[in-house]
Amino acid sequence: MKTGYTYITTNKNHTVLYVGVSSDLPGRTHKHKTSFYKNSFTSRYNVNKLVYYEIYPDIRDAIAREKQLKAGSRKKKIELIEKMNPEWNDLSLTFGCQRRERSEHTSSST
Predict the structure, then answer these.
(1) How many Å separate Cα 9 from the centre of its chain?
(2) Cα 20 from Cα 69, distance rounded (Å)
(3) CA–CA dist 63, 57 (Å, integer)
(4) How far apart are CA 40 and CA 52, in angstroms?
(5) Residue 29 has pLDDT above 60, yes or no
(6) In the chain, at which end, N or C, are there fewer CB atoms within 10 A of the end residue's CB?
(7) DSSP character string of the chain
(8) What is the mean pLDDT of residues 90-100?
(9) Regarding the domain delimited by 4-108, which CATH topology (the fold level of the hierarchy) does it fall under?
């Protein structure tokens, strides 16, 4: 099974919350930060700061959790964020080394 991540991103003023799912959280947050999808919701509203995530061993569980979070209130999302990340730091900044190491590992194994 493919690992899955359910995540919440926001803009710099924390006025917009976006719930998403991915099998590659470092790659997906990079796409949010670089506005890879120019016409997407996250690009239009500059939603590129990762403030919360959950890891699931099966992507299907991550998808189910995404649906649950999207159906929930903004208040509940904020409670989740503040429990894990009370200062609303950009958690994607910790992915820099992981992303590089994974790229190096992939290159060396080919």
Answers:
(1) 6
(2) 9
(3) 12
(4) 20
(5) yes
(6) C
(7) ---EEEEEEE-TTS--EEEEEES-HHHHHHHHHTTSSTTSHHHHTT--EEEEEEEESSHHHHHHHHHHHHHS-HHHHHHHHHHH-TT---GGGGHHHHHHHHHHHHHHT-
(8) 67
(9) GIY-YIG endonuclease (3.40.1440)
Gap between the Cα atoms of 65 and 6, Å rounded: 7
Q: How many residues does the chain have?
A: 110
21's tokens: 């799912």
Relative orientation angle of helices 25-33 and 95-108, to the nearest 10 degrees:
120
What distance lies between CA 17 and its chain's CA centroid? 11
Residue 99 has pLDDT above 70, yes or no: no
